Amino acid sequence: MSLIRLSICLILFVTWFPAQAQRLGESLPVWHTGQLDIHHINTGQGNATFMVLPDGTTLLVDAGAINSLDWRTNAPRNIPVKPNNSRQAGEWIARYVRNALRFQASPVLDCAVITHFHDDHMGTPSNVTKRGRGGYVLTGITEVGEHIPIRKILDRGWPDYDYPRSFGGDSMVVNYRRFLAWQTQHNGLVTERFTAGQMNQITFVKQPELRSKYPVEIRNLMVNGAMWMGEGDKTRQLFPDLKTLKAAEYPNENMCSIVFQLRYGKFTYFSGGDIQGVLQFGAPAWHDVETPLASILGPVDVQLLDHHGYADSENGTLLANLQPRVFIIPAWASSHPAPEVLNRLFSKEIYSVERDVFATNLLPEAKAAISDFLPRLKSQSGHVVVRVEPGGKSYRVIVLDDTSETYTVKAIYGPYKSK
Ligand SMILES: [Zn+2]
Q: What residues make up the domain containing 369?
């Protein structure tokens, strides 16, 4: 390298690098073009994963709110609202997103995905009195939408919301559909059903011309039991025809979850909602959806744990095929994660490479149950941010303080080399 080139590199390094690097004890520096940020926001109330794609397109996957007045949170098995109970989870999520998007004059969510219709992924209206401009109750995704405009929503039910049975009597889905109708009419919201096998439902919308420079692909792997077959956009149905089942035997809500994989260059991220892979005694084999899914997947860098690490998730076949380097556990109850799941996660018999495990939250009761594993966890509380460098060759995992809105960096792991 010539002396001139070397000096130019040095100048670029000192002028650019200090502004961008994350440091312990300081706030997380803002996203910049080319970077992929995946924020696992901890409200203690369920899943909320916020992404900024390399062109600035924004994506929110789930917005859980099990609600501070609801029986589920009053139960000692659940985590109180983080940072505190002065606001509901949906508003905390919106405030987190606004702060992360402070480089935009008017923050918007280009896309939101609801993986399935449970309170810890979309918000429940029960015991909530706050109402939005459209008359619907503000909770989870509907509360996020009150604070930040959402351009497009993908879910597993649009437009009929009738698989495997009608949601007409489900207050959560009824409230959500009122929100969709009002936002469509007044704010131009577009809703689509998430379709397995597709690769064009979540793409760059801010600067599509950057797609070749920053190659991101989001592949829809599974929804409602329809699974991508690993080539083209072909799918097959894992669940039996409903006509052959009694109502009590229908697929449960968790099994119907939206599953997707994101690739950025060599970097791969897997998100499986609340799918399950460990059969209950007497359950039919098709209740295990992780095993067939594993057959179409190769190694990934980061996995968001299925079903919060509950005992029925993360079977050995899935782990042997995905071989994640980094696990993120979105925990909100004393049963998250189960000791036997951690046993599998750390098992060198299932796969041999090193792995780091991060939890967004752990209740004292959960800590007592998994005490043998605690020293091996890289985090026990905090927002967990995966920050992928431009091009996708490497990434870091950054743990942020979740007790206030300073977003102070508590720990930095990596850089990890993408597979
Ligand atoms: Zn869940």
A: 40-417
